[in-house]
Amino acid sequence: MDEDIDIEELGALALLSQSNWSIDYLEGLDTSEFPFPNTLWHRRPDWEISLKTTLMLSIALIGIFLNLVILAIIARNRWLWSASNFLVANLALVDLLTLVLCPWPWLVRHFYQSYVIGEVGCKFEAFVQCELGRVYSHKS
């Protein structure tokens, strides 16, 4: 057996054996002749930003109001204090937190296509969405 085998060359040959291209083709390939996109991020049109913000704001406000109504009704009427109604109140509370915390970072990420809120905001958003999703999955 020949001991002068280069591991990198062997790996490249293994990858090429699974593809349709030869080493000669890849070495002579000039990528400047292909029209790749020159911008990674595209600015959303103003009408799209305003429409999505208006829809998200109206859905969130209606949901926040109705969840607060459910919580107020259950909290003020002692005769509604049962296990099933506490479950409904717990779901209303989690839904309220979801409506307050989750749509806004999503809108910012969608409009600007990056995390304007930074690394901490990115991790906080992921944590909140995972925890609220976990609570939702245990309630159903």
From TrEMBL:
PROSITE patterns: G_PROTEIN_RECEP_F1_2 (PS50262). The chain crosses the membrane at residues 55-74, 86-106. One of its GO terms (molecular function) is G protein-coupled receptor activity. Pfam families: 7tm_1. It is a multi-pass membrane protein. Residues 66-128 form the G-protein coupled receptors family 1 profile domain. It is found in: Membrane. The keyword Transmembrane applies. Keywords: G-protein coupled receptor, Membrane, Receptor, Transducer, Transmembrane, Transmembrane helix. GO terms for cellular component: membrane. Belongs to the G-protein coupled receptor 1 family. This is (diamondback moth) hypothetical protein. It comes from Plutella xylostella (Diamondback moth).
